[in-house]
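Lab notebook page, bench 4
Experiment: in silico fold of construct C2
Operator: M.H.
Input chain length: 390 residues
Purpose: comparison with the prior construct
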Amino acid sequence: MSPRTYLDYNATAPLRPQAAEAMAAVLGETGNPSSVHAEGRRAREYIEAAREKVAGLVNAKARNVIFTSCGTEANMTALSPQAVAPEGASGTHCFVSAIEHPSVLCGGRFEQADVSEIAVGGDGTIDVSSFAGQLENYRSSNPSGTFLVSVMLANNETGAIQPVAELAEQVHGLGGVLQCDAVQAAGKIPIDIASLGADMLTLSAHKFGGPQGIGTLILGPGAEDFAAPLLRGGGQEMRRRAGTENVAGIAGFGVAAEIAARDIEDFRRIAELRDELEIRIKSESPDAVIFAERAPRLANTSCFAVPGMKAETSVIGLDLEGVAVSAGSACSSGKVDRSHVLDAMGVEPGLAECAMRVSLGWKSQAADVEQFITAWSLIHHRYQEQAQAA
């Protein structure tokens, strides 16, 4: 049997061997990081060393890194009225872009009546001037109201990179707070939390080669008071997130973050693989549509559709041929539903149902692209034969 080809890095990246080794070393020891004895202090050392490394990935201060169980928990922690108005002032509102991860799209801890969507254009990015007008209208109607804006740095389905720094300037100019979900962008493009203008930033380790089940909320310069604890109880994570820390997961997170920061230039190579893949797709299927093709995109992501070829059928067919890809987000319990991201971009429903995502990463090689194209060509030919016979 031929080895399988994994091209679903935006769902989860393979665990880096160095991260696995770090985790195994921690699992071989005993110690609660809140204990004062030698074993506890050793566990604490693992956490603080990782905190420095994770902070380094986005040029943040280590003391502003709050470890959570995942990116979803980090987003839920950030999206709180108390983060914007600690005294519970009335008129607090939340704005989220229409292409966000479900943990942001739901508005976190805001009431649904207090959540508004920010539209995106056909290329999958937010128009800065339109966004500014939306905020100014809110400010005109709520001169003393407080608000939080949540915009992802890069979309998990299309790879489209959002103009977060420009949006942050608009938000801060009107007295708001900006939270940025950088889960898909981390390790793929350089990130500086201060230059980005983010008051809060969320990451998840497994997207760039760390373990699953560990994430972080990182506070930006001057935003140390914005984290309103979601989990309350003990004094862990500087009283910002209660619960005994996942020491092994945190250690793996730190190592993966360190390697991702060091190897960020490798995405030039990955971009060449992605571009070759898209050239070959268009050669095989001239009517293929590549979504967000003209927008700034992550180098590893290609979201495309061939009219009439349903995504679910294509994904299953590729899986049977030994190639793992996705029909979009991997956050829907295995369901293949039409993408809310493509809906927000104004993509015609029939075409959106044909959209699939190929995402590459640190282990991807030219042979993986070849394997995909071989399998894709076979499935495309079958589709053409069936369409002609119908």
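Observations: The chain has a mean pLDDT of 93. The radius of gyration is 22 Å.
Next step: discuss at group meeting.
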